């Protein structure tokens, strides 16, 4: 009788640097510390390390954090995340690593997934890990970052960028979106949505969504587009016209479109496509419905239309997405 493969959670190591922002340091622990398999076992093992031996690390607040692991923890990582810091010194000023930081990063094994939140991207850039690749950071810092690292393709308008083995995000809450995206990539939408529900955050904000939304909190004296969005989500499988959404709020199409973009950062058409892609992903992961059936239920109408949209959003066809996700689930099941 064959032995069951040993279960090993995916290890996420968070690199805590002096001047770190406590909120952003806590994001990976909050998001990756929640997902569990069907046996109740944690899918991720999250630890924090410093570039120095265990001890206190300064924050940008009036307290320090006690870090229990030194740089040797980086050698054990499957994913390394670098949150923002306000004390990066020559990394921020000149785009070069300190000897201490360079020695720590050298411990990371080849093939380890790397991610940054906000100005943590400076560390990846100074290490040469982003040359010739797309990246993002906080919109207020994007111009300076581009000048310091001209060989990086900086996009200042998006929440996060997934470039395969290296992912970067904008500031603060965009770090939540990035970490949820990684959970979704690793274990599917159902697991990521459950983490989001427990964290009381939106389950999915597309990486290409604008960083700066003119009116993230609607003026209570003005009508919003909230009801129209809820109405649309309940009938994604049906044809939805812009004028029908506007009618839900008793607005003209022009006013509705402007207010929708102010509140969500995307146009109504882009938002509908994002929701339909997300619905298609859920159906491909959790059901055995044919591609044609999934296309109809997600509101794409035809399989060809859905293929085009999934290819644009995810870089894969519906069939390839389902095959990859099922293979990952079967591999995970063997480990249980």
Can you describe this structure?
With 336 residues, the protein is α/β, with parallel strands linked by helices. The chain has helices at 22-32, 90-93, 99-105, 121-126, 142-148, 174-187, 189-199, 226-233, 242-248, 253-264, 268-286, 291-298, 303-314, 318-335, and strands at residues 10-15, 44-49, 55-58, 64-67, 79-82, 113-117, 134-135, 153-154, 160-162, 166-169. Strands 2-1-5-6-10-9 form a six-stranded mixed β-sheet. It has a two-stranded antiparallel sheet with strand order 3-4. It has a two-stranded parallel ribbon with strand order 7-8. Helix 9 (242-248) packs across helix 10 (253-264) and helix 11 (268-286) packs antiparallel against helix 12. Residues 212-221 and 331-336 have low confidence and may be disordered.
Compact overview of the structure:
The protein has 336 residues and is of the alpha/beta class.
State mean pLDDT (0 to 100 scale). 88
Decide which structural class fits the backbone: alpha/beta
H/E element string? EHEEEEHHEHEHEEEHHHHHHHHH
Helix count, per DSSP?
Answer: 14
What is the strand tally? 10
Which strand order spans the largest sheet, edge to edge or round the barrel? 2-1-5-6-10-9
Give the N-to-C terminal Cα separation. 16 Å
pLDDT below 50 for ≥5 consecutive residues: which ranges?
212-221, 331-336
- Binned, the helix content reads 40-55%
Whole-angstrom Rg: 21 Å
Largest sheet: 6 strands, mixed
**Overall shape:** globular
Beta-strand content estimate: 5-15%
């Amino acid at each position: 009788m064959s032995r069951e493969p040993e279960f090993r959670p995916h290890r996420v190591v968070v690199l805590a640097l002096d001047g770190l922002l406590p909120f952003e340091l806590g994001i990976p622990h909050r998001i990756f510390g929640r997902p569990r398999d069907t046996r109740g076992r944690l899918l991720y093992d999250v630890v924090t390390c410093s570039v120095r031996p265990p001890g206190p690390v300064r924050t940008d607040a009036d307290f320090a954090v006690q870090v229990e692991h030194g740089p040797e923890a980086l050698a054990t990582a499957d994913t390394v995340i670098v949150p923002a810091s306000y004390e990066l010194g020559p990394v921020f000023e000149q785009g070069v690593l300190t000897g201490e930081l360079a020695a720590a990063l050298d411990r990371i094994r080849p093939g380890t997934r790397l991610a940054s939140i906000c100005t943590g991207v400076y560390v990846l850039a100074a290490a040469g890990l982003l040359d010739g690749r797309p990246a993002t950071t906080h919109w207020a810092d994007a111009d300076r970052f581009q000048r310091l690292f001209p060989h990086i393709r900086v996009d200042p308008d998006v929440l996060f960028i997934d470039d395969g083995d290296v992912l970067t995000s904008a500031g603060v809450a965009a770090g939540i979106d990035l970490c949820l995206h990684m959970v979704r990539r690793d274990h599917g939408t159902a697991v990521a949505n459950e983490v989001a529900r427990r964290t009381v955050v939106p389950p999915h904000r597309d990486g290409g969504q604008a960083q700066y939304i003119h009116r993230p909190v609607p003026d209570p004296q003005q009508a919003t587009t909230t009801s129209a969005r809820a109405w649309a989500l309940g009938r994604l499988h049906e044809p939805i016209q812009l004028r029908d959404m506007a009618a839900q709020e008793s607005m003209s199409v022009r006013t509705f479109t402007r207010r929708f973009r102010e509140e969500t950062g995307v146009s109504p058409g882009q938002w509908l496509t994002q929701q339909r892609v997300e619905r298609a992903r859920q159906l491909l992961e959790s059901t055995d419905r044919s591609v044609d059936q999934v296309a109809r239920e997600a509101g794409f109408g035809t399989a060809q239309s859905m293929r085009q949209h999934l290819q644009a959003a995810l870089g894969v066809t519906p069939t390839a997405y389902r095959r990859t996700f099922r293979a990952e689930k079967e591999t995970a099941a063997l480990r249980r």
